[in-house]
Each structure stands twice: as structure tokens, then as C-alpha cells.
Design goal:
Layout: H1 6-9, H2 17-23, H3 26-30, H4 35-42, E1 47-50, H5 56-66, E2 72-76, H6 80-87, H7 96-124, H8 129-140, H9 149-161, H10 173-176, H11 183-205, H12 207-210, E3 214-218, H13 229-249, E4 253-260, H14 261-266, E5 279-281, H15 286-301, H16 307-314, E6 318-319, E7 322-323, H17 324-330, H18 336-353, H19 361-382, E8 403-405, H20 406-423, H21 433-442, E9 446-450, E10 453-455, E11 470-473, H22 475-481, H23 494-503, H24 519-539, H25 546-568, H26 575-594, H27 604-622
Helix pairs in contact: 2-5, 6-9, 7-8, 7-9, 7-11, 7-13, 8-11, 18-19, 19-22, 20-23, 24-25, 24-27, 26-27
Length: 635
């Protein structure tokens, strides 16, 4: 080992894999291969699913760094601009999931084409006609250079919605595709031409047999996801596109999709059962976290670091009578990010704050209080999109015992329910006693007693059952809540608790599934979406005069203004409103078709078709139909 105190050099890495790679620790041995990594490397699994901080991006970074088993590696991490392009992409004649799968398929085909053009030159040194065609296609469609993903997606979306340049493949889009019955059918035909060109180049080069495949990975979708139907369609479209591309390109391309568990578990679509064999969920045991800690300690300090040195000399042997490693890992959620943060905080408390060369029991306890505060805030932020009310539930457990019965929780919740419903009227359906228990269990805040064990969410555990009546706050959050003893015999003060919830704060003493807005709020939201969808279609109706487009937009904006008034006034008896709007859309569509204006997909016909589809969708919604994928067009 190098000179200087060992503790000063001890570091367990960064919370994010990107910086771990940049600083070299991940590549120096700080990465712990697990089942998910092995499955991804072998190609046995396509979907790597895990909670935030569970190590998905670390696997992704490690695969990118390995390189040797693949002909090339492409990593797609959409930013907000790219995510917005995909979320709002729609095609007349196709449901939302199917439309969004086309934009993903186009993105995959472009990346594969770029790879093939470069790969053929560098590895095969062959000039094949199929590869030359790909190079011409990329140049003609502005896809040969780099640039921001969002800008390229916007360009690709416009091409699919209007026309791509396909002359490189011997197709003149304006003539050969003019007979397509709808915007969606035309886009699908164009895309098939491009994909067949890519597949032919792979076959001509013999890539599937000569060397490793192209590895195409998608990560960090949570950065552009929200608990809205168009976001779910974005993810469903990705899954459908990857499944299609695997069949089309065979062994020449391998796909890996890294998805957060709460996002994946929220999806509901007809093809979902076909992905079960592709799934692998990341789980971490205490022993795996011990192994990770030792691997990262060795990467930072040296190969001489042993478990005995780490847990017997640098750390104290026991904390509050419990073996130290067990004490630490029981007080963080079972994922690498939390473990890394806690371990680093212990080291910093001892070395930076107190100037010690060994971590003491007091350092661990001090770090534990700070860590608990962090994690309680982080949990609320992690689920802010899915459960925006989450932090307002924490006061129900503040300054009381960490064991709580269903009956006691019912009393506390009854005192707070009115305030919660007033603050979050859109989530009234979830803000019931069974609803909050399910949410708190799903996010890992509460565990449930089953027999002699307390079970926290993870793996294949059952959700909370109706007869189960004893719950435990996770040790990670107890210090922040002042719930450090099992039972608190003080009487609960419902008015005080309700006031804390109204204020949305508390004072610190130191899959299973998403919550969705109530039906009435969703109807307002869907009415707005219909208006925006029609306005977008109108803006693309380039065969209509500007005056005609302006008049259509003016009428639809009146409907949108009415929807906004309904939302602001909290008027939620909306079935009649949706039916009246649907009838108006039908009337407007008939007027457009009878107007004598251009009735093609790029004119009045396309707008009329969109109006009719949105009319059918609103009628279904008014009748009670609602799905998580929530396509933006009828089927």
C-alpha cells in the first residue's frame, strides 16, 4: 500500500457510475459482476430492471468499457429534448404505443447504419453496394454526422411524418408510397425500406458470424419519464421496437434496455407477457453489498485490503452491539448507491471532521443520523413523479415507535385524510388507508411482519395482504423520524399531525404500482391531450392554406380554453362535457370533408381523420375506458 494513513486513501467510489468510470475506480476493480451483468454480457436477457441506485448504469458503463466482445457499442441516454420529441410523436392511423415504436425503430436503424458504414471500412475493408446505399441514405437525410440526439430525433420524426429520402434504396417516396392509406401506414412503409437496407448490409458483411454483435443500449429513461400516458407509451414503444429489431437483425445486433422498476411495473399493454423471458431484476443481498464494499476498498487502497482489516481495524468491530457491516447494511436500502454513500460518510466523518485514522463507533452513529436525513429526503424525490404526496405521509410516523399497527395507522390517517385530499385532490383514489400502505410498502419505507420475519419490498415478495396488521418503518429512516424505539406510548396528537401534513414538512430530531390521479382529473387531462393532438395534426397539414389552418386551430383552442376553465374551477362531472366535445369533433370533421379542401393526409383529410379518432377516444373515456398506455389516437 502507498504511504500515508490508509483511512485517508479509503474511498468507496461515486454514487453515479459515469463519474466512477471517469475517475477510474470502476475500471480498477471497483465493479462487482453480478447475475444481471452476466446475463447482459451473455445476451440471455434484454431488460435489466432495478430501482434507482441499484447499479443499472454501472452495468451499462462496464459493458461499454469492456468492448472486446462486441463489434461496437452504442449508448442512448435521452435528454429532456429527445424525450419530448418521442413523447409527442404521433401518427394518424396508429395508436400511441405503435407510433412511438416507429420512432425508436428509426433511431435503432440509423445507429446500426452508422456503425455499418464505419465498421465495413475499418474491419472488413470492403466496398459493398448495400453499405454504400446506407452511407447515401445517411447523407441524404442528414444523419451521417453527430449532433444532439434531440435534434436528430426531431428531424427523423419529421421524415417519418412526411417523407424520408429513400432514393439510396431505389425508392422514390413521393411516387411509390403515395398509395399509403394513412400517415401511420406511410411511415411504416418508409421505415421498412430503411430497416431492410440495414439488414441486407449486415447479411452481406456476414457480421453475425464473423465477430461479436453491435451492442445497442438504452439507459436513464427515468430522466424523461412522467406518470402520464404518453410517457408510458414512450417506454412501451421502446420495448416493442427492441423486440422487432431483435427479430429483424438476428445475431448481428444485441439490445439492452435498462429500466427503473417502478416505471416498468406501471406499464400495461397487450404484448407485455412476451417480455417475461427477457427480464432480469437486480437484487442485492447483504453479502453482495459486503463483497462490493471490499472490492471498492481494494480498488482505492490496494489489493492488500482484507475483510478483517476493513471491518476490524478501519471500522469498529461492533456498533451498538451489532457486527458493523451488518449494522451498516441493515440501515440502508439494499442497493449500491445507498451503501456507497453511507460508507463514504463514515470515512469522511472520521477523517475529515475529526482527523482520526480509524473510524469509531461514534463516527458511525453520527454519520448514521446524517445519512438517515438524506435518505428520507431522497425517497420523496425518487418518487416525486409517481407519488407527489409521499413526503406528506412521513409525519404520520414522526416521533413515535417504528412499529405501527394497521389500527393505529388508521387513526393517524383519519386525522390527516382531509388535509391530504385538499392538497392532492387528483390522487384521492390512492389516498386511502389501504392505498397509502401499499405505496409505503412498495417504495421500501414500510415492511410487514410475516410470521417471525419483517419483509420489505423486493424480489418476488407478495404485496401487503388485507389481513396483515403490523408494519415496521425501515431502519434507514428511523433516525430522521425520531422513531428509534419500537413502541412509543405517548398519545398521538391528530390535530398536530394534520397541521404538519398541511404544511408538508416535519422537524428532524438530529411496480406495487404507481398512484394515478382520480378519474375526473384524468378526463380533463385527456380532453387537453385531444386538443393538443388535433392542433399538432393541423400544423402538419401543409396542403391546407395558412388561413384554413388558423381557423381550425382557433376553434380547437376554444375547446382547450374550456378544458382549462373546467380544471381551474375543479368541476369534475365531465362525462357530458367529453361527449359534447366528441360530437363537436365529429361535426367539425364532417365540415372539413365537405368543404372541398384537399382531403389527403397532408390536408383536410388528415385533420378530419384525427378529429374522428379523438372523438372515438373521448367517447370511450366517457364510458369508463382508461388504460395506462393511453394511446393518443384511436385503434
Amino acid at each position: 500500500m502507498a504511504d500515508g494513513p490508509v483511512l485517508a486513501r479509503l474511498h468507496f467510489g461515486r454514487e453515479d457510475a459515469e463519474r466512477d468510470v471517469t475517475e477510474g475506480l470502476l475500471l480498477r476493480g471497483g465493479f462487482l459482476p453480478n447475475a444481471a451483468y452476466r446475463a447482459a454480457l451473455s445476451g440471455r436477457k434484454m431488460l435489466i430492471i432495478g430501482r434507482k441506485g441499484s447499479g443499472k448504469s454501472a452495468i451499462c458503463m462496464q459493458l461499454s468499457a469492456d468492448g472486446g466482445q462486441h463489434a461496437g457499442t452504442v449508448l442512448v441516454t435521452p435528454d429532456e429534448t429527445a424525450g419530448e420529441e418521442i413523447r409527442r410523436f404521433e401518427l394518424q392511423g396508429l395508436p400511441g404505443d405503435s407510433a412511438k415504436s416507429l420512432i425508436w425503430r428509426y433511431l435503432f436503424a440509423v445507429h446500426a447504419a452508422r456503425h455499418l458504414v464505419t465498421h465495413a471500412k475499418d474491419a472488413h475493408r470492403r466496398k459493398l453496394d448495400s453499405v454504400k446505399a446506407l452511407a447515401r441514405f445517411l447523407k441524404q437525410n442528414g444523419e451521417s454526422a453527430g449532433g444532439r440526439l434531440g435534434d436528430r430525433l426531431a428531424q427523423g420524426a419529421r421524415g417519418l411524418q412526411t417523407s424520408l429520402s429513400l432514393e439510396a434504396f431505389g425508392v422514390k417516396a413521393g411516387v411509390d408510397l403515395a398509395s399509403a392509406p394513412s400517415e401511420g401506414a406511410q411511415a411504416a412503409r418508409q421505415l421498412e425500406v430503411v430497416e431492410q437496407g440495414v439488414a441486407k448490409a449486415f447479411t452481406d458483411l456476414g457480421c453475425a458470424g464473423e465477430h461479436g454483435p453491435l451492442l445497442l443500449m438504452v439507459d436513464q429513461l427515468e430522466q424523461v419519464w412522467s406518470a402520464e400516458s404518453d410517457s408510458n407509451s414512450m417506454v412501451i414503444g421502446l420495448l416493442l421496437a427492441a423486440k422487432h429489431a431483435v427479430s429483424l437483425y438476428g445475431g448481428a445486433v444485441r439490445f439492452l434496455l435498462f429500466l427503473r422498476a417502478d416505471i416498468y411495473d406501471s406499464l400495461s399493454f397487450g404484448e407485455g407477457d412476451k417480455f417475461r423471458g427477457d427480464e432480469l431484476r437486480i437484487t442485492w443481498t447483504e453479502q453482495a453489498l459486503r463483497d462490493l464494499a471490499l472490492a471498492r476498498a481494494r480498488a482505492s487502497v490496494g489489493a492488500e485490503m482484507t475483510a478483517e482489516l476493513l471491518w476490524g481495524e478501519l471500522f469498529p468491530a461492533v456498533v451498538e452491539g451489532e457486527e458493523t457491516a451488518s449494522y451498516l447494511f441493515r440501515r440502508c436500502l439494499p442497493r449500491p448507491r445507498d451503501a456507497i454513500q453511507f460508507l463514504n460518510l463514515c470515512q469522511e466523518t472520521a477523517w475529515l471532521i475529526h482527523g482520526r485514522e480509524r473510524i469509531t463507533e461514534g463516527d458511525v452513529l453520527q454519520a448514521g443520523r446524517q445519512f438517515s436525513d438524506w435518505k428520507l429526503k431522497d425517497l420523496a424525490l425518487e418518487y416525486l413523479v409517481a407519488h407527489p404526496f409521499l413526503k406528506h405521509l412521513f409525519p404520520l410516523f414522526q416521533n413515535t415507535g417504528y412499529v405501527v399497527t394497521r389500527a393505529a395507522l388508521a387513526t393517524r390517517f383519519e386525522a390527516a385524510a382531509e388535509s391530504l385530499h385538499r392538497l392532492f385532490p387528483a390522487y384521492a383514489d390512492a389516498l386511502t388507508l389501504p392505498g397509502i400502505i401499499d405505496v409505503l410498502y412498495a417504495v421500501g419505507f414500510l415492511g410487514v411482519r410475516r410470521g417471525n420475519d419483517v419483509v420489505f419490498a423486493g424480489g418476488d415478495d407478495l404485496p401487503v395482504q388485507a389481513h396483515e396488521a403490523e408494519f415496521h418503518v425501515h431502519p434507514c429512516f428511523r433516525a430522521a423520524l425520531g422513531a428509534t424505539s419500537a413502541i412509543d406510548l405517548r398519545h398521538f396528537e391528530p390535530l398536530v399531525a394534520a397541521n404538519r401534513i398541511v404544511q408538508g414538512n416535519f422537524q428532524s430530531p438530529a411496480v406495487t404500482g404507481l398512484s394515478f390521479p382520480s378519474r375526473d382529473h384524468r378526463l380533463v387531462q385527456e380532453l387537453r391531450r385531444s386538443c393538443h393532438s388535433i392542433l399538432a395534426q393541423t400544423s402538419r397539414a401543409v396542403d391546407l392554406t395558412q388561413d384554413a389552418r388558423d381557423e381550425i386551430a382557433r376553434q380547437i383552442n376554444r375547446v382547450l380554453d374550456e378544458a382549462n376553465v373546467l380544471a381551474a374551477a375543479s368541476i369534475f362531472d365531465l362525462e357530458d362535457q367529453l361527449l359534447a366535445t366528441a360530437h363537436y369533433f365529429d361535426t367539425l370533421a364532417a365540415q372539413l370533408l365537405a368543404s372541398g379542401l384537399d382531403d389527403t393526409a397532408g390536408g383536410a383529410g388528415g385533420v378530419a381523420g384525427r378529429l374522428e379518432e379523438e372523438s372515438r377516444r373521448l367517447r370511450r373515456l366517457a364510458g369508463g375506458s382508461y388504460g395506462s398506455s393511453g394511446s393518443s389516437s384511436g385503434s
